[in-house]
Every structure is written in structure tokens, then in C-alpha cells.
Write a structure and sequence with these properties.
alpha/beta, 203 residues, binds thymidine-5'-diphosphate, 5-stranded parallel beta sheet, binds adenosine-5'-diphosphate, 5 strands, 8 helices
């Protein structure tokens, strides 16, 4: 039987990486992330997130296509092999991120984006998207608490991230069977337990 893909989604600082790791450990699934989980992906991630606008200019359409190219490679190297070998795989971000950030955030037409995403994903879709929902100011405080340098997307500011958050909520309410929305203003262990319970139902 084919394995299942489970995607964790949310704005920066919502706790996706923490929960993706805990979920993969709990269910014995593989773990991947976007952008950057392949050799090509690392090059894409570096140019998208850690280059200054002085070094390199990136149009919003180029940004979208690079995120999608990263996904195509993540699918080829990590996701498809796992699924076809019957293993479940958890991903820290997937297509929902492109719709939320490049569609709702940047303003690219969503149907056009969906077409481009389909080129990368083919028939592979998450069996479930888990949306870690959190107000932007709270997520910003968490990011500040990590002491890590902010990346190019995080520097876009509160209005941008609020559009992204509202975009995620719209996607989830339009397709409730495929999205599980969690209010993330609660302890890490509690969230992990809720996700695990929902995912166990699915598996
Ligand atoms: P993301 O991958 O969504 O950016 P992370 O999992 O890296 O988020 O978490 C960002 C920061 O917030 C980390 O310092 C992490 O320890 C902290 N964090 C994650 N989940 C919670 C939570 N439920 N409550 C408080 N802090 C959290
Ligand atoms: P990520 O490493 O998950 O950052 P964080 O842990 O802070 O959430 O993602 C890096 C950034 O890339 C993040 O700001 C969201 C952005 N992104 C897009 O804009 N579109 C996409 O399709 C993906 C996958 C990520």
C-alpha cells in the first residue's frame, strides 16, 4: 500500500518544524521540509532566503517558480520514493505554502499558481494538511526568541504575514476534509498530542 504524505503548514514561527519532527518520530515516518531538503533545494533556499537584494534581484514570479522547483526535486528525491515504498512522510511545508505566501501574500493569481504547482506535484497530494494557526505578533515574538537571523521572507513584515495567515484560513475553511486547523497558543506537547490523534484516525 502507498504511504501517506502529511504536510504541516503555517506562518513562520508557528511551530511547524517542532511539530513535524515530533509527528514523524511518533508515527515512524520519514521527514522532509521545503524549501531546501535536496542538493538543488539547498541552492534554491540560499538564493531565495539568504541573499540580499543588492546581490541578487528576484521577481515574485521567479520566487514562485523557484519554490515550485524546490518541491519538484523534494518529490523526486524524498517524497515519491517514500510513498511508493509504502512509508509515510511528514513535510514541513508543501503546496499550501506557495498558495499562502506567493498567492495570498504576494498577490499572484491562485489558479495560475495551482497550474504551476501541478507540474511539480503530479498526482501527489497531502492526505492531510495540518495548519498551525497563530496570530502574527505572537509568531514574531517566538522567532525573536530563537535569536536566529531573520530571512528574506520574514522581513516582509506584519501585513504580509497577516495576509498569508488569512490565506491559510481561507484554504482550510474551503476544504475542511483536507485541512486540520489548530490554535497554537498552547504548549508544544498538547499540540503534538492533538496532531497525533488526528493523524492516527487518518492512518
Ligand atoms: P516554525 O518552523 O513554524 O518557524 P519552530 O518549530 O521553529 O517554528 O518554532 C519557532 C520557535 O517557537 C522555537 O523557538 C520553538 O521552540 C518555539 N515554539 C514552538 N512551538 C511552541 C509552542 N507551542 N509554544 C511556545 N513556543 C513554541
Ligand atoms: P521555513 O524554512 O519553513 O521557515 P520557518 O521555519 O521560519 O517557517 O520556510 C522558509 C520561508 O519560505 C518561509 O518564510 C516561507 C517561505 N515559503 C514560501 O514563500 N513559499 C513556499 O512555497 C515555501 C515552501 C516556503
Amino acid at each position: 500500500m502507498a504511504g501517506k504524505l502529511i504536510a504541516l503548514e503555517g506562518i513562520d514561527g508557528s511551530g511547524k518544524s517542532t511539530q513535524a519532527r515530533l509527528l514523524a518520530e511518533s508515527i515512524g515516518a520519514d521527514l522532509t521540509f521545503e524549501p531546501g531538503a535536496t542538493g538543488l533545494g539547498r541552492v534554491i533556499r540560499q538564493s531565495l532566503l539568504h541573499s540580499s537584494s543588492k546581490e541578487i534581484s528576484i521577481s515574485i514570479e521567479a520566487e514562485a517558480l523557484l519554490m515550485i522547483a524546490d518541491r519538484a526535486q523534494d518529490i523526486a528525491e524524498n517524497i515519491a520514493p517514500a510513498i511508493y515504498a509504502g512509508k509515510n512522510i511528514v513535510t514541513d511545508r508543501f503546496s499550501g505554502s506557495t498558495i499562502a505566501y506567493q498567492g495570498y501574500g504576494r498577490g499572484i493569481d491562485i489558479d495560475t499558481l495551482q497550474d504551476a504547482i501541478r507540474l511539480a506535484t503530479g498526482s501527489i497530494e497531502p492526505a492531510l494538511n495540518v495548519l498551525l494557526d497563530i496570530p502574527v505578533d505572537q509568531a514574531m515574538r517566538r522567532i525573536a526568541g530563537t535569536g536566529n537571523q531573520t530571512d528574506r521572507m520574514e522581513r516582509l513584515g506584519i501585513d504580509f504575514l497577516d495576509r498569508v495567515r488569512q490565506g491559510y484560513l481561507s484554504m482550510a475553511s474551503a476544504d475542511p476534509d483536507n485541512w486540520y486547523v489548530l490554535d497554537c497558543d498552547r504548549p508544544i506537547e498538547e499540540i503534538a498530542e492533538m496532531i497525533l490523534s488526528r493523524v492516527r484516525d487518518l492512518l
